Amino acid sequence: MDDIFDVAIVGCGVSGANIARTLSAYTATVVVLEKEEDLSFGTSKANSGMVHGGFHHKGDTLKARLELEGGLMFDRLHRELGFPFTRCGIIVAAKSEEELEAVRVLYERGRENGVIGIELCSRERLLALEPVLSGEVVGGLHAPGGGIVEPYGFVFALMENALLNGVQLKTGFRLIAARRETELWELEAADGRSIRARWLVNAAGLFADEVSRLAGAEDFTIHARKGEYYLLDRLAAAKPKKVIFPVPTTVSKGMLVIPTVEDTVLIGPTADEVDDKEDFSTEQTHLTRIMESGKNLVPGLREADVITNFAGLRPALGEDFYIDLSKKAEGLVQVAGIQSPGLTASPAIGEYVKDLLLRGGLELVARRDFVASLPSMPVLRRLSAAELDARIAEDPAWGRVVCRCENVSEAEIVTAIRRGHRTLDGIKFYTRAQMGRCQGGFCQYSIIKLIMRETGLSFDEVTKRGGKSRVLGGAL
């Protein structure tokens, strides 16, 4: 049995990582338990990467309140932690007078919510803000405070800072038992590891309902809502500068056209409930619908610019977030149903959970030695020629380009491996290697060799995302 922690957080997506980073500013001992082999492998890796504008949800919901508070926190976090983020603005484009009436409702809701700078736009104003829009638009809404963020980069930065401040992380920790004994939680993993903690925070995303049942707490059901996306090359001709929303329906916010922080373009997502929480398949009929929807907003989009398609699953649970002290299990905080705009709300979720823990009796004393920032990490594609020459002089690996599409060096991949990212997907999310036009076709073999060299793993032990996802096998 390991040491006793004050707080154990189950799940290391954007919610768990923000809670961990928030608590790391205090003297409480904190451990994060993640069932996957790396961080952000669940809901957080496959979402729209968007900081919402604060006008979609009514202000009397917890969801809207935390969205508004969390969205305003990104600038400070970006300065401190350096993850990719920009406030590019959000547009909602109407193509009929009927849709324009719905946009006016969103505008009034945004004003009631206190959204800064929100404006109703004429057709001319909208096309001036975003020239790639369809000429059929009749007007719309502009929320300049909306933005885009690299979700996995955000999670990695939060956790690196939390670890720097004393938080512990245990990956591959699939919880199979949670028992409350003499004011302590005894938490057991499938591989036999166990820890004890005074408080348990259930931030398990799609599996928060299962963790709650293990803990003998509230009985609720998380429904997996699948969202499929297209990803377009950064060389795409019709590339918007702002996030473009259609007018939402009663069922969905619709399929978006989203510029990413790394200059590619996302189109999507769909919204279909599925029974299997591990179902990341895509369907051609859905992908066709995604492209048609995207072209409805931005006619210049082309199938030829598509790099890949993928799917993510969102944890649906009613109309609002469920974040509260458990009424059935002592020493448990529920953080469940964190779907859109969960990424935007996540910094505020960290603060909200901290306040719940205080209310529940956890003593939190501010650390005098808290380090709020991370040292900047050099990235090959952003170095000047002089800076690159200096790097190569210190370490020749900076001069060996492994991923040509994304311009990622051997030095960056080695750094990722040495920081614990030992799967192909973990390295992809940490460095962007394998994310370009060839999707790893040219660089994956070199990355596998680097993993083997740095870790001592054999070729048939290297995995895509841990577990049984082995990449190579048999006689080579």
CATH classification, class level of the largest domain? Alpha Beta
Which spans of ≥5 residues are poorly predicted at pLDDT below 50? none
User: How many strands?
Assistant: 22
Per DSSP, what share of the residues sits in E-state strands of 2 or more residues? 15-25%
- Percent of residues in helices: 25-40%
The CATH architecture of the largest domain can be given as 3-Layer(bba) Sandwich
What is the CA-CA span between the terminal residues? 42 Å
Structural class designation: alpha+beta
- The fourth-level CATH homologous superfamily of the largest domain is FAD/NAD(P)-binding domain
Kindly provide the radius of gyration, computed on alpha-carbon positions and rounded to a whole number of angstroms: 22 Å
CATH topology of the largest domain: FAD/NAD(P)-binding domain
Kindly report the average pLDDT value: 94
Estimate the global geometry from the Cα principal axes: globular
How many domains? The number is: 3
Total number of helices: 12
How is the biggest beta sheet arranged? 8 strands, mixed
Q: Describe it for me?
A:
Helix 1 (14-23) links the parallel strand 1 (4-10) and strand 2 (30-34). The model has no long low-confidence stretch (mean pLDDT 94). This protein folds into 3 domains: 4-45 and 151-222 and 319-360, FAD/NAD(P)-binding domain (3-Layer(bba) Sandwich), CATH 3.50.50.60; 87-147 and 224-315, D-Amino Acid Oxidase, subunit A, domain 2 (D-Amino Acid Oxidase, Chain A, domain 2, 2-Layer Sandwich); 380-461, Orthogonal Bundle (Arc Repressor Mutant, subunit A), CATH 1.10.10. The chain is 31% helix and 23% strand. Helix 10 (410-418) crosses helix 11 and helix 10 packs across helix 12 (444-455). The two termini are 42 Å apart. The protein is built from 12 helices and 22 strands. It has 476 residues and is an alpha+beta fold. Strands 1, 2, 9, 10, 11, 12, 19 and 20 form an 8-stranded mixed sheet that branches. Strands 13, 15, 16, 17 and 18 form a 5-stranded antiparallel sheet that branches. Strands 6-7-5-14 form a 4-stranded mixed sheet.
